[in-house]
Amino acid sequence: MRFGFIPVPSPLTSRSRVYELKARLDWGEPALTIIDIRSRCEFNHSHIMGAINMPMNELVERALVSLELVRDIYVYGDTDEEAAAAAAKLRSAGFLNVSEIQGGLPVWKAYGYPTESGIARVG
Fold first, then answer.
1. Which of 26, 52, 100, 116 has the highest Cβ tally under 10 A?
2. How many CB atoms lie within 10 A of CB 17?
3. E strand or H helix at 101
4. CA 123 vs CA 10, 75, 110: distances in Å
5. Rounded CA gap, 47 and 65, in Å?
6. What is the top-level taxon of the source organism (predicted)?
7. Strand order in the sheet with 52-53
8. Could you tell me the end-to-end alpha-carbon distance of the chain, in angstroms, rounded to an integer?
């Protein structure tokens, strides 16, 4: 009898593909945070399962209050450019392990990965 296994996920990089994040979640690594920087309305409509909402204008202030600077953080927005800007803000604030999720929610959904909606989760 063969037992399947989930391969060890790649280390965090400055930009991540959705399947890299999903592999890490499947591996069972809880020491990460997924941040959605879109508006609360957009977040409540649909977001990556387990993500927290920290709109761009509140991002650094809320992250500094609720997350450790060494925490692995994955961030996404409406565009890759917004995710890059958010990641840059977090890095400038002292966060050491920040990765931009390339393609954000649309690519996550295209892979058929789990999403949530109608839940006002905040970090």
1. 100
2. 16
3. strand 97-101
4. 26, 13, 26
5. 22
6. Bacteria
7. 15-16, 97-101, 72-76, 32-36, 52-53
8. 44
Q: Among 67, 65, 64, which residue's Cα sits nearest to residue 92?
A: 64
At 42-101, the pLDDT tens digits run 999 999 999 999 999 999 999 999 999 999 999 999 899 999 999 999 999 999 999 999
The dihedral built from the CA positions of residue 9, 10, 11 and 15, taken in this order, carries a sign that is negative
Domains along the sequence of the chain with CATH: 15-113 (3.40.250.10)
pLDDT digits (tens, 9 = 90+) for 86-112: 999 999 999 999 999 999 999 999 999
Specify which residues 95 forms β-bridges with.
none
Note whether 33 and 67 are within 8 A (CB): yes
CB-facing half-sphere around the CA of 24: CA atoms within 13 A: 21
